[in-house]
């Protein structure tokens, strides 16, 4: 509780600075309107009593659901940074599934009740698995175990609040197929989306509430599948070469799909957007061999933005300004550009979860408006691959990720923001 007590006192420091209170040390003899020392001592005693009350509240929060532990919003953190204060996020980490091989290609989403849920591939059993937090424990399900299933999973919730997963199935002597599984309340129903091939699935629901998936199809062509209510409509996305690595799907403010991907024929990171009748493709970063791990999201202003592995495996961020892609180096300390996942804070700032492969750590980066603040979230063992970042309903960042070949699936959630001078 000492850290929490300091956060409250530091928060009060911030408030006095922000409100222009200034120094409480008298410049000379006390004036008529200046607080007496006794009044100041009484005020400090009152603050201590309030701190004790806050500590009790924090203790009560800690006993509740992990997804309800927001202590301070990202907006307040931004305001504190603007006043020159230091902001440190405190993370709570849970092992979701300790099974060897778990956590590969994890994908995080929140249920309509605000609880975290994760799809992932168990590389030990070669099964597609789903985990959901009930407020005190994680419940684990095997979604499909036929053949080798679950490679590169992507989780989203239907408009009716049911979990759905896009993924790859590999069958011996047959090859790969793109699959879609949806929970009906008692069991999982499975559909074949594209029997001719399908890896690197990215599942999102359209503005009209129907599932859509970007993926690599036959011959490694970038493809897009959208369900029309009765069948899946498949499209090849533009005139592209071989698309490998990760695909990332999001919907533009216009309601049209957009995809970030790596074109291995050109060795460049690409962006594709549908205009209602055709796809247009453009280069985001033309440096060779960058963008195999990209994550696409739209800014609050409606502009596309991408996190990705840049030159020398650095972590990069690119945002479209209406005419060009403006690129930034986020983290350059070692191999830190892999397994990226991009999301925007409630205050509209970009945030990225990613792997520090040089140190086998999970890291988190958040933009303050002028600089990127970097933090190591988990450094216990070989952790940090296959990250998936989302913000909880209370506005706190949360990450699912793999704890290495023998560590299984883990989940980290920010539960406090400590503010200091």
- Specify Rg, calculated over alpha carbons: 24 Å
- Unreliable residue runs: 1-27, 53-72
Distance between the termini: 19 Å
The general outline is: globular
Q: Assign the CATH architecture of the largest domain.
A: 6 Propeller
Number of strands: 28
Number of domains: 2
- Quote the CATH topology of the largest domain: Neuraminidase
Number of helices: 3
Strand content: over 45%
Percent of residues in helices:
10-25%
Largest sheet: 4 strands, antiparallel
Overview features:
4-stranded antiparallel sheet, 421 residues, 2 domains, Neuraminidase, 28 strands, mainly beta, disordered N terminus
Structural overview:
- By secondary structure, this protein is mainly beta.
- It has helices spanning 2-18, 37-62, 74-82; strands at 86-97, 104-110, 116-122, 127-133, 138-144, 148-157, 163-171, 175-183, 188-194, 199-205, 211-216, 222-227, 232-236, 243-251, 257-263, 268-274, 279-285, 295-298, 304-309, 315-320, 325-331, 338-344, 350-356, 361-367, 372-378, 385-391, 397-402, 409-420.
- Strands 1-28-27-26 form a 4-stranded antiparallel sheet.
- Helix 1 (2-18) crosses helix 2 (37-62).
- The model is unreliable at 1-27 and 53-72 (pLDDT under 50).
Describe the secondary-structure layout:
Elements: H1 2-18, H2 37-62, H3 74-82, E1 86-97, E2 104-110, E3 116-122, E4 127-133, E5 138-144, E6 148-157, E7 163-171, E8 175-183, E9 188-194, E10 199-205, E11 211-216, E12 222-227, E13 232-236, E14 243-251, E15 257-263, E16 268-274, E17 279-285, E18 295-298, E19 304-309, E20 315-320, E21 325-331, E22 338-344, E23 350-356, E24 361-367, E25 372-378, E26 385-391, E27 397-402, E28 409-420
Antiparallel strand pairs: 1-28, 2-3, 3-4, 4-5, 6-7, 7-8, 8-9, 10-11, 11-12, 12-13, 14-15, 15-16, 16-17, 18-19, 19-20, 20-21, 22-23, 23-24, 24-25, 26-27, 27-28
């Amino acid at each position: 509780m000492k850290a929490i007590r300091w956060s409250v006192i530091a928060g009060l420091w911030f408030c006095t600075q922000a409100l222009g209170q200034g120094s409480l040390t008298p410049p000379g003899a006390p004036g008529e309107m200046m607080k007496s020392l006794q009044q100041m001592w009484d005020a400090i005693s009152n603050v201590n009593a309030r701190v004790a009350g806050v500590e009790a509240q924090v203790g009560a929060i800690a006993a509740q659901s992990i997804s309800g532990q927001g202590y301070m919003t990202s907006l307040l953190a931004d305001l504190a940074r603007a006043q020159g204060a230091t902001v440190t996020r405190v993370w709570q980490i849970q092992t979701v599934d300790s099974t060897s091989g778990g956590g590969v290609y994890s994908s995080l989403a929140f249920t309509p009740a605000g609880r975290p849920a994760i799809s992932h591939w168990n590389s030990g059993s070669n099964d597609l698995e789903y985990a959901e937090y009930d407020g005190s424990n994680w419940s684990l399900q095997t979604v499909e175990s036929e053949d080798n299933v679950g490679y590169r999973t992507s989780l989203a919730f239907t408009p009716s609040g049911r979990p759905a997963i896009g993924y790859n199935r590999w069958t011996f002597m047959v090859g790969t197929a793109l699959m879609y599984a949806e929970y009906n309340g008692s069991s999982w129903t499975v559909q074949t989306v594209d029997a001719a091939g399908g890896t690197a699935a990215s599942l999102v629901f359209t503005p009209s509430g129907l599932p859509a998936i970007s993926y690599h199809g036959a011959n490694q062509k970038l493809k897009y599948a959208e369900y029309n209510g009765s069948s899946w409509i498949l499209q090849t996305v533009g005139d592209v070469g071989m698309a490998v690595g990760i695909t990332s799907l999001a919907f533009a403010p216009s309601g049209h799909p957009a995809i970030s991907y790596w074109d291995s024929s050109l060795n460049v990171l690409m962006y594709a957007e549908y205009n209602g009748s055709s796809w247009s493709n453009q280069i985001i970063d033309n440096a060779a061999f960058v963008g195999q791990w990209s994550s696409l999201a739209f800014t609050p202003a409606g502009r596309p933005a991408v996190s990705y592995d840049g030159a020398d495996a650095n972590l990069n961020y690119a945002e479209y300004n209406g005419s060009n892609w403006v690129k930034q180096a986020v983290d350059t300390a070692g191999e830190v550009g892999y397994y990226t996942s991009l999301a925007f804070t409630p205050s509209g700032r970009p945030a990225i979860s990613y792997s520090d492969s040089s140190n086998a750590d999970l890291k988190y980066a958040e933009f303050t408006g002028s600089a990127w603040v970097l933090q190591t979230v988990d450094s216990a063992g070989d952790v940090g691959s296959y990250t998936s970042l989302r913000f909880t309903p209370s506005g706190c960042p949360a990450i699912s990720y793999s704890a290495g070949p023998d560590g299984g699936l883990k989940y980290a959630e920010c539960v406090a923001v400590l503010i200091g001078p």
